[in-house]
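hey so u asked for the seq, here:
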Amino acid sequence: MGGEKVTTPFYTGGCQCGAVRFHVEGALGDASVCHCRMCQKASGNFYLPLVSVRDAKLTWTRGEPKRFQSSNHGFRGFCADCGTPLTYEAPDGVALTIAAFDDPAEIAPRIQWGIEAKLPYVDAIPGLPGEDTMADQDAASFLADLVSYQHPDHDTDTWPSERKR
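ran it, structure tokens below
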């Protein structure tokens, strides 16, 4: 009788410029979005999607976040080079920003926190008309030959590979 091979979940991710990269080995904890004003400011967005690392092993594989103490209990980690928000660190553990993962689609939020600060139009956003990027005729001329300097959504041996920082 052969047993099924048990595989440990493994995730990779990092910042936009590639100066900070991470691996997470093990099951992630709860995924959520937080609408509190502190998370809005830390992300520069309407809310901040986060996932708890819990008991999984988080390893910084390239660089490490710079940290800002946003309260007497918490720190916000971000890339000092490009500004990408990466962590929320509190007494109960570390959470990573979901969009910083190389495959964020597999990490779905299950709850919303801080709804007292939810911006009044957030729930209406999915009902707005949607278009592909190239449908923006005013931007099509520069988008047609756009070269992204963003780190790819996978680990690389070195970065940046072809351009100077």
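Residues 73 and 91 are 7 Å apart (CA to CA). The radius of gyration is 18 Å.
lmk if thats what u needed
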